[in-house]
Amino acid sequence: MSDYCDLAPGHPFHGPYHDLEYGFPVADDDALFERLALEINQAGLSWLTVLKKREAFRLAFDGFTIDRVASYGETESRRLLDNVGIIRNRLKIEAVIHNAGVIQTLRARHGDFRGWLDHHHPLSHGDWVRLFKRTFKFTGPEITGEFLMSTGYLPGAHRDDCPVQARILAAAPPWTRS
């Protein structure tokens, strides 16, 4: 993603994400869930739009606490659809809520969301896409690929000459152990 390595440094939204998060391994389930939810909400929009709304998303989705979001019903769905601070798309909101419940099921079988990801790693991009489509809602090739790249399960977040790449390699994301 060479363009991102050129665009992001110094940018008020892209810069911190590029330098501190994008491509690094993520261990916390709620942080993994947040990343999946943000990728789902990015579909059809710019990543900058999502980053600008990130704090509003965190507030609206109770910090992306999986168990809280999984318990959302019609009242919470309506509240989210009325929240002008986030992307108000019914299909995306329903997918995020549904996927929180899916992650609860995955945790019951694999200990945590990361355990489920590690259980299936390594897979090719195409195999990951098929697995995500069978498992989650609203996860096509782009969403799945970006989620996995952003959390260290697929390579390609940074160019080899990007200064962040050395820090990512030092953090030993799963793709380096394939």
- Indicate the radius of gyration in whole angstroms: 16 Å
Give, in order, the helices and strands: HHHHHHHHHHHH
Largest sheet: none
The helix count comes to 12
Shape: globular
Q: What is the second-level CATH architecture of the largest domain?
A: Orthogonal Bundle
How many individual β-strands?
0
Helix/strand-derived category reads mainly alpha
| End-to-end C-alpha gap | 20 Å
- Proportion of residues in extended strands: under 5%
Mean pLDDT: 97
Question: What's the CATH first level of the largest domain?
Answer: Mainly Alpha
Tell me the helix content. 55-70%
Describe the structure in brief.
Keywords: Metal-binding, Zinc. By secondary structure, the chain is mainly α.
Your description of this structure?
- The longest helix is centred in the middle third of the chain and has 21 residues, at 90-110.
- The protein has 178 residues and is mainly alpha-helical.
- The chain is globular, with a radius of gyration of 16 Å.
- The chain has two domains: 1-23 and 156-173, no CATH class; 27-142, Orthogonal Bundle (Endonuclease III, domain 1).
- It is built from twelve helices and no strands.
- α8 (90-110) packs across α9.
